[in-house]
Amino acid sequence: MNPLLARLQPYPFERLRQLFAGVTPNPAYRPISLGIGEPKHAPPALIQQAMVASIIASPSGLASYPATAGEPALREAFAGWLHRRYGLKLNPVTQMLPVNGSREALFALTQTVINPGVTNSPGQRPLVVCPNPFYQIYEGAALLAGADAYYVASDPARNFGPDWDSVPDAVWARTQQLFVCSPGNPTGAVMPLIEWQKLFELSDRFGFVIASDECYSEIYFRDEPPLGGLEAAARLGRSDFKNLLALTSLSKRSNVPGMRSGFVAGDEALIKQFLLYRTYHGSAMSPVVQAASLAAWQDEAHVVDNRALYRTKFAQVTPLLAQVMKVALPDAGFYLWADVAGNDTAFARDLYALYNVTVLPGSFLAREAQGHNPGAGRIRMALVADTAECLEAAQRIVQFASTRPS
């Protein structure tokens, strides 16, 4: 077996299962889960209709292998969306590719980028730099590519955004890839332009690739939509998007996580190599999913409606929870990152036992680094269900926190 598999850590939800082992939740309450970031709003009818219409119109489409690069019309739809959303003009032939959800692409990209045999520090593995807290696929992708993960210290004053200035030059010199997530999971923080400028300068100096995970970009609570990585590069005169790839998907934007559809765009040279890898990896998107995806990227009305649902929900739930814990409306995303002023795993376990509500301990989403785990004492709540269910969960949490010994 691949010996690198032994380096993987249990996924947060496996750790949660272990935490709840032997616990019987209070049967007086129906179960409500705020633990998994899986959208629960209804998928748009236009996507389902496009999928069905594709099968009816071309049933033979399922009888042939699709191209890894995707259909030209789909890549044109990606380009059209990037232009409408960010004002960007990218070449649909050379600067973008369909992917089977951003998670698959984040992992595969790292396998493409990392060269484990090349490092500026003999005897040491190359590094993949990650925010902390973070989405665990970043770590797994790094370890299975033969690299080590380096976890950047977070700054609580900036909603746990990464403190890039804390990273020594010796670390950057070993770095081959950097993961950024904006809007962030779990904090919802959005990176400003000045932060992007710093990362681009570091990338130019040390030569690493920036993988920008932007799957939460269309769920936001301010008037101005979140800045994207490609948009930041264009504003700073980096129209070639050197060493930068942005990854996004329909899962959160359009409530279709089961469709596994997204795209990656950016540096033409990186896209060329990524396409080569994906051709061997067997990552082509089904023609039926391509047809549905095209319809989704060309329609914005359902995205506006979806965002309004989240805004209404967060406006009701956040102040309710703020009565008993330190929590605030995020910049974007569909998570609340709350300070429970105590042991986060005990909070999650006892809440589950007494009130049958599942939340994810913050320490499961971070790593011990620079002397502490930045997720300790916090919980992540995914407000993905309808407003009534989220409000009921919040009311139970308020009751639990109000009566829990300090």
Notes on the protein architecture:
With 406 residues, the protein is α/β, with parallel strands linked by helices. It has two domains: 3-43 and 302-403, Aspartate Aminotransferase, domain 1 (Alpha-Beta Complex), CATH 3.90.1150; 45-299, Aspartate Aminotransferase, domain 2, CATH 3.40.640.10. 40% of the residues lie in helices and 14% in strands. It is built from 14 helices and 14 strands. It has a seven-stranded mixed β-sheet, sandwiched between helices. Helix 2 (45-57) crosses helix 11 and helix 3 (72-86) runs parallel beside helix 11. The radius of gyration is 21 Å and the shape is globular. The termini are far apart. The model has no long low-confidence stretch (mean pLDDT 96).
Question: On the 0-100 scale, what is the average pLDDT?
Answer: 96
Give me the side-by-side strand order of the main sheet: 2-10-9-8-7-3-4
- State the name of the first-level CATH class of the largest domain: Alpha Beta
Q: What would you say the CATH architecture of the largest domain is?
A: 3-Layer(aba) Sandwich
Poorly predicted tracts of residues: none
